[in-house]
Write a structure and sequence with these properties.
The complex is a heterodimer of chains A (about 675) and B (about 325). By secondary structure, chain A is an alpha/beta fold. Chain A has 25 helices and 15 strands. The longest helix of chain A is centred in the middle third of the chain and has 23 residues, at about 340-360. Chain B is an alpha/beta fold. Chain B has helices spanning about 10-15, 20-30, 35-45, 50-55, 70-85, 110, 140-145, 160-165, 185-190, 210-225, 245-260, 265-290, 295-305, 310-325; strands at about 60-65, 90-95, 105, 120-125, 150-155, 170-175, 200, 235. In chain B, helix 3 runs antiparallel to helix 14, helix 12 packs antiparallel against helix 13 and helix 12 packs parallel to helix 14 (about 310-325). In chain B, about 50% of the residues are buried. Classes of the chains: A alpha/beta (about 675), B alpha/beta (about 325). At the A-B interface, helix 20, helix 21, strand 12 and helix 22 of A face helix 2, strand 3, helix 6 and strand 4 of B. Strand 12 of chain A pairs parallel with strand 3 of chain B.
C-alpha cells in the first residue's frame, strides 16, 4: 500500500459571463479562493463563430459565457493572470483552432514562449453533432481542423492538450455508461487515425500525440457504476493505445481525464438536494486512485434554475476542497483493486462497449454514424427510456417523482430568486465595442490575413499559423469563422428523432391522450400538426427532441428542424407548414428575446392566435411577463410529466379553434 | 385561430401571385377532411386558372431510398432555380407511423440550407397511408402550388407504393440512388422500371462506387427502355459539392421538352386529374361505388376528355352526388 499522499486534482469551476472584464474579475477571485485551474465558458455566439452584432447573436451575447471576439478581448480576459503559470481549459469546439490561436498570440504579445502554455482546448466535434450543437462545418473539414490543431500543438505548444475527447454531453443526451465508453473511445480512435494518416507527424513522434490526447467525462448519481466506468475507460485506453498504436511507454498510455459531474440529474424541485448529488457524483471520479480524474469541475446546486451566482460556485469549489484536503482519500492506494464486484461490473461495461465500438466501426466509423443518424438515434432512444422510467416511477428521483412534500426553501427566497441574471445592456455594449474595434484597426492587414487564411483553408496546409497571424492582425471571431464557412460550408446534423420507441408512462393515460389527439384531429379536419423549434444558438436539443418523439407517438404530425433557427425561420415554418401549435425550446437564457421575436413575427402575418409554448431553463419570476407577451404555457425542468404537458398542449390547440378543452388528464 | 376562409376567386387570384399567406391557407383548406370544407376545396380548385394548370410550369417528383441524399439534392436544386429567379415550391412527404398515425415531418432546413429564399415555399406532409402510398391530398396540393410557382417538387421516400404514386402525379420523376449501398441492385430487383424518367446517382464525391453504380444503371436502362422515345439518362452528381447539378437541370428540362414535343404534357396532366378523381370516388364510396358508375376504366376514358380542371370537378361532383343520393339508405 502506498504511503505517499497523492497530489490533488486540478480544482476548477466552469465559468464566464457578460464580458471579458467581468469574467477576469471572477477568475481572479476564484483563484484567490483556492481554485487551481481556469475553465473558460464562452457565450454561444463565440462558440458558433459569430460576432456580437450578427443577427443570430441577438439575445445570446454574454449569456452562457464570455464573448471573445478578438485578441484585445483575450488580453482583458487574462489581465493580471500569468499565462506561463496558468492552466487554462477552454470549452471550445468548432472554433477551437481560433481560440488557441488567440491564446498563443496573447502569449507572444506578452513576450511569453508559447511552449510554456498549459491547458486544454476541448476541440471535439462529435459530441457537438450528437448533443451540444455548437458545430459549424461538415464532418470532413471539422476533423481536419482538429487534426491541424493537434499536429501544430504537439511540437509547438507541447504542454497543451489540443483535444479533449468529450463524452460528457453524450451522457447529458441520455447515453448509458456503455454508450459513453464506446462513442468516446471510437471518437478518440477516429482522431488518432486521422492524425496518423495526415502525414503531418513523424512516426517516431506519434506516441507523443497519443499522450497529449485527453478526455472529458461525465459522472452520474449511480456512483459505483460510474466509478467502474472510469476504471473501464482507463483499462480500455491502455489496450487501444498499446495494441492499435504500439505505444510502449505506459505513462503515455494513461487515460488522462477531466470531469464535470452530471447536470442531467440535477433537479429544479428541492434544488438543495443537488448538493448531495454533486458530492456523490464527484466521489465516483476520485475514489479509485488508478482511475482518478486529473481535473474536476462541479456544477452549482441551482443550475436547473438558471445561471449560478459567485456564492453558488464557491459552494461547489468548497466541496472539492473538503474532499481533497479534509478527507483521507488521497492517503491510500487504489482501494477498489481486487474487489470481485467491481471487477465484474468493469468486465460487463467493457464487453458492452467493445461490442458497440465494433458496431460503429462496421458501419464505417464515427463520421458515418453521425451522418446516418445511427449514434444520435441510439442516444435519443436511451434518453426516452430514461424519461419513461422517471414517469413510471421505476427510476426514483427524490423530490421529483418521490418524496415530493417539501417545506419552503430559504435558498430561493432572496430577491434575485436564487440565481444570477446577465444585464441586458451588455449586448448593446458589445455591439458598439465590436464596431469600434473594426473601425480602429488596419483593414489592409486584416484583409491580407483573411486572404491567407482562405488560401490555407483551401489547401492542405495547417490552419494554425494563418490563424495566429489573423489574431495579431485584429481579425474577429466572426470573420475567422465566416472565411472558413465560405470554404467548407455549414452542416446540419441529423436530429435522430426518427426512432420508434415504446410509448412512455401509464398505458391508460397514454391511451386516453391518444384518443384526445385523434378526436381533436377529427374536429380540426386534419391531425394536430406541431412545430417544435429551437430558436437562437443554443444547441441543447434533448428536451425538444423528447417532446417531438412523444408528440409523434401520440399521433401528432410533428415538424422538427433541429437547432439554431432564427425567429424568422420559425415564423416562416409555422406559416408554410400550417401548424396548430408551436413549441419553442430555449436553455441559454435568451428566452425573452426569442419569445418576443417569434410572437411579433407571427402577429405580423396574421398568426397571432397560434398558441406558442416555451420550454427550457426559465426562471419562475419571468413567467408572468412571458405570458403577458403572448406565450401560452411555460415548461421547466420541474415539469417531468410529458403526458401532462402533451394534454395541456392538445387543449391549447382546441381552445385556439373554439373547441372545449378536455381538462386535466 | 382559424381565420375565415377567403372566397375561392379571391384566393385563386392570390395563388397566381404565390402570395405566401394565401398559399398556406389554400393548402390547409385542401388538407381539411371535414365535409363542409371539402366542398370549398373543390370550389377553389375549380377557380384555378385551367390553362396554366394544363400547360405551364414543371411538376417534378424526386424519390429514392432513405439515405440517398434527397434533401441535399433538393437543396442544391432549390438554390440553382432560386438563383435564376424562378419560384419553387416543395411538397415533402414523410411516412406516417402505421401504429400511431403520428409522423415526423421533413427536414426543411437540411433542404434549404442556411440561407432563405423569398421565392421558396415548403410544405411537409404525412403520407397517412397504411401501405406507404401517398395521401390523396398530395395531388390537389400540387395544383395549388402549380398555380403560382414555376417549379413544383414532390419529394417522397421511395418505399413501397409511394414511388409509383408520385410518378402518377408529376410530369417528370427523378429516382435517386446512393452508391455502394446496394440501391441500384434494389432498384433493378424492385421492378419499378416504369417509375423514373431520370436516374440520379448522388454522392459522386465517393469516387469509384459512384461510377460503378452509374455503370450498373446504364446497363439496365439500355435493356429496359429500348421501345421508348425517351432514353432515360443517368446523372452522376454530388449534391454536397454542388457538382453536376446543371446537368440534372438540363435533363429535367429536356424531359419536359420531350413531353411537349410528344404532346403528352397536357395529356399527362389530364390523366393525372382523372386518376385523382377516381381515387377520390374510391376512397369515399369504395370499389363497389366505382363499379356502379361503370368501373374505373370507363370513368377514366370519359374523364380523359376533360382537360379543364373545372369541368373535371363538375363531372366528379355529379358522380359523387349520384352515389351519395343513391346510397342514402345505407348507414355509412
Amino acid at each position: 500500500m502506498s504511503t505517499s499522499k497523492d497530489r490533488p486534482w486540478l480544482v476548477r469551476t466552469y465559468s464566464g459571463h457578460s464580458s471579458a472584464r467581468t469574467s477576469n474579475e471572477l477568475y481572479r477571485s476564484n483563484l484567490a479562493k483556492g481554485q487551481t485551474g481556469l475553465s473558460v465558458a464562452f457565450d454561444l455566439p463565440t462558440q458558433t463563430g459569430y460576432d456580437p452584432d450578427h443577427p443570430l447573436a441577438r439575445g445570446e451575447v454574454g449569456k452562457v459565457g464570455v464573448p471573445i471576439s478578438h485578441l484585445d478581448d483575450m488580453d482583458v480576459l487574462f489581465d493580471q493572470l500569468p499565462l506561463d503559470q496558468m492552466n487554462t481549459s477552454m470549452t471550445i469546439n468548432a472554433v477551437a483552432p481560433w481560440m488557441l490561436a488567440l491564446y498563443i498570440a496573447l502569449a507572444e504579445r506578452r513576450g511569453i514562449d508559447p511552449a510554456k502554455l498549459q491547458g486544454t482546448t476541448q476541440n471535439d466535434i462529435v459530441k457537438e453533432y450528437l448533443s451540444r450543437g455548437t458545430h459549424i462545418f461538415p464532418p470532413g473539414p471539422s476533423l481536419r481542423l482538429i487534426v491541424d490543431t493537434i499536429t501544430y500543438s504537439v511540437p509547438n505548444v507541447p504542454k497543451w492538450n489540443p483535444t479533449n475527447i468529450c463524452s460528457y454531453h453524450l451522457q447529458e443526451a441520455g447515453a448509458t455508461p456503455v454508450q459513453e465508453l464506446a462513442y468516446a473511445l471510437s471518437t478518440a480512435i477516429m482522431v488518432l487515425d486521422a492524425v496518423r494518416d495526415s502525414g503531418q507527424i513523424p512516426e517516431a513522434d506519434f506516441p507523443k500525440v497519443v499522450s497529449r490526447l485527453s478526455f472529458f467525462v461525465n459522472a452520474g448519481i449511480r456512483f459505483i457504476e460510474e466509478c467502474c466506468k472510469m476504471r473501464a475507460f482507463t483499462q480500455m485506453w491502455d489496450e487501444i493505445t498499446l495494441e492499435r498504436y504500439g505505444v510502449k511507454d505506459a505513462k503515455q498510455r494513461r487515460f488522462r481525464y477531466g470531469v464535470q459531474v452530471n447536470s442531467l440529474g440535477l433537479t429544479e424541485s428541492q434544488p438543495e438536494n443537488n448538493v448531495q448529488r454533486i458530492v456523490l457524483e464527484m466521489l465516483a471520479v476520485v475514489l479509485s486512485k488508478d482511475a482518478r480524474a486529473r481535473a474536476v469541475q462541479l456544477p452549482a446546486w441551482n443550475e436547473a434554475l438558471g445561471l449560478p451566482r459567485p456564492w453558488d460556485q464557491q459552494w461547489s469549489l468548497r466541496i472539492q476542497q473538503v474532499m481533497a484536503f479534509e478527507t483521507d482519500l488521497l492517503e491510500y492506494g487504489d482501494i477498489l483493486n481486487g474487489s470481485p464486484v467491481i471487477e465484474a461490473k468493469m468486465q460487463e461495461l467493457m464487453e458492452g462497449a467493445n461490442a458497440e465500438i465494433q458496431r460503429v466501426a462496421e458501419q464505417g466509423g464515427v463520421l458515418a454514424g453521425i451522418d446516418s443518424g445511427y449514434m444520435k438515434q441510439a442516444l435519443v432512444k436511451s434518453h426516452a427510456e430514461r424519461l419513461r422510467a422517471i414517469e413510471t416511477g421505476e427510476l426514483t428521483i427524490v423530490g421529483v417523482n418521490k418524496f415530493k412534500e417539501t417545506a419552503e426553501s430559504p435558498l430561493t427566497q432572496s430577491g434575485d430568486g436564487g440565481i444570477m441574471k446577465v444585464d441586458p445592456a451588455v449586448e448593446q455594449q458589445h455591439i458598439e465595442a465590436i464596431q469600434a474595434h473594426r473601425a480602429n484597426r488596419d483593414q489592409d492587414k486584416v484583409n491580407s490575413a483573411l486572404n491567407t487564411l482562405r488560401d490555407v483553408a483551401k489547401s492542405n496546409d495547417n490552419i494554425m499559423p494563418a490563424s495566429i497571424a489573423c489574431a495579431h492582425a485584429g481579425v474577429t471571431t466572426g470573420e475567422w469563422a465566416q472565411t472558413l464557412r465560405d470554404v467548407f460550408g455549414e452542416y446540419r446534423a441529423p436530429t435522430g428523432i426518427d426512432i420508434s420507441s415504446s410509448i412512455g408512462g401509464d398505458p391508460e393515460r397514454v391511451a386516453a391522450l391518444r384518443e384526445r389527439v385523434t378526436a381533436t384531429g377529427s374536429s380540426l379536419g386534419r391531425p394536430i400538426k406541431l412545430l417544435v423549434a429551437k430558436p437562437g444558438l443554443d444547441g441543447h436539443s434533448n428536451g425538444a427532441e423528447q417532446i417531438a418523439v412523444k408528440a409523434r407517438e401520440l399521433g401528432m404530425e410533428v415538424v422538427y428542424e433541429g437547432i439554431r433557427l432564427t425567429p424568422q425561420q420559425i415564423v416562416a415554418a409555422a406559416q408554410e407548414e400550417g401548424v396548430h401549435l408551436v413549441g419553442l425550446s430555449v436553455l441559454s437564457g435568451s428566452h425573452t428575446a426569442m419569445a418576443e421575436m417569434v410572437i411579433d413575427g407571427l402577429r405580423a402575418i396574421d398568426l397571432g392566435a397560434l398558441p406558442v409554448t416555451m420550454g427550457g431553463i426559465i426562471p419562475e419570476d419571468e413567467h408572468v411577463a412571458l405570458k403577458e407577451r403572448g406565450i401560452a404555457a411555460i415548461y421547466t425542468p420541474k415539469d417531468s410529466d410529458l403526458n401532462k404537458i402533451m394534454a395541456e398542449m392538445v387543449d391549447l390547440a382546441r381552445l385556439a379553434h373554439q373547441l372545449d378543452a378536455f381538462g386535466p388528464l | 385561430m382559424q381565420t375565415a376562409v377567403s372566397d375561392p376567386q379571391t384566393l385563386a387570384a392570390k395563388l397566381r401571385l404565390a402570395d405566401r399567406q394565401a398559399v398556406a391557407e389554400a393548402l390547409n383548406l385542401i388538407d381539411d377532411q371535414r365535409p363542409a370544407t371539402r366542398a370549398k376545396a373543390l370550389e377553389l380548385l375549380a377557380a384555378l386558372e385551367a390553362e396554366r394548370l394544363a400547360n405551364d410550369g414543371h411538376l417534378i417528383g424526386i424519390t429514392g431510398p432513405p439515405g440517398a441524399g434527397k434533401s441535399s439534392l433538393l437543396s442544391a436544386l432549390i438554390d440553382y432555380w432560386c438563383a435564376k429567379g424562378l419560384k419553387v415550391a416543395v411538397l415533402a412527404v414523410d411516412p406516417s407511423s402505421p401504429k400511431t398515425g403520428g409522423a415526423l415531418l421533413g427536414d426543411r432546413l437540411r433542404m434549404t440550407g442556411a440561407g432563405q429564399h423569398k421565392n421558396l415555399f415548403i410544405r411537409s406532409l404525412a403520407s397517412r397511408q397504411q401501405l406507404g402510398g401517398l395521401a390523396a391530398e398530395v395531388w390537389p396540393m400540387s395544383r395549388i402550388l402549380l398555380a403560382g410557382y414555376d417549379i413544383v417538387l414532390i419529394e417522397t421516400v421511395g418505399v413501397g407504393q409511394s414511388e409509383v404514386d408520385v410518378a402518377s402525379m408529376v410530369d417528370t420523376t427523378a429516382y435517386v440512388v446512393q452508391p455502394a449501398s446496394g440501391d441500384s441492385i434494389q432498384f433493378i430487383k424492385s421492378g419499378i422500371m416504369e417509375v423514373p424518367d431520370i436516374m440520379v446517382v448522388n454522392k459522386a464525391d465517393l469516387g469509384a462506387p459512384a461510377i460503378k453504380a452509374a455503370n450498373d444503371l446504364h446497363q439496365v436502362m439500355r435493356r429496359s427502355t429500348q421501345d421508348s422515345d425517351w432514353k432515360i439518362p443517368v446523372c452522376t452528381l454530388s449534391a454536397r459539392d454542388r457538382q453536376g447539378i446543371d446537368a440534372l437541370v438540363n435533363a429535367l428540362e429536356a424531359h419536359r421538352a420531350h413531353l411537349v414535343s410528344m404532346q403528352s404534357l397536357t395529356a399527362g396532366r389530364t390523366a393525372q386529374q382523372g386518376a385523382w378523381a377516381i381515387r377520390q370516388l374510391q376512397e369515399e364510396f369504395g370499389k363497389s361505388g366505382v363499379a356502379r358508375l361503370g368501373g374505373a376504366a370507363a370513368i377514366a376514358r370519359d374523364l380523359d376528355n376533360q382537360h379543364d380542371l373545372g369541368e373535371l370537378l363538375a363531372s366528379y361532383n355529379a358522380r359523387a352526388e349520384h352515389l351519395r343520393t343513391s346510397t342514402k339508405a345505407w348507414p355509412t
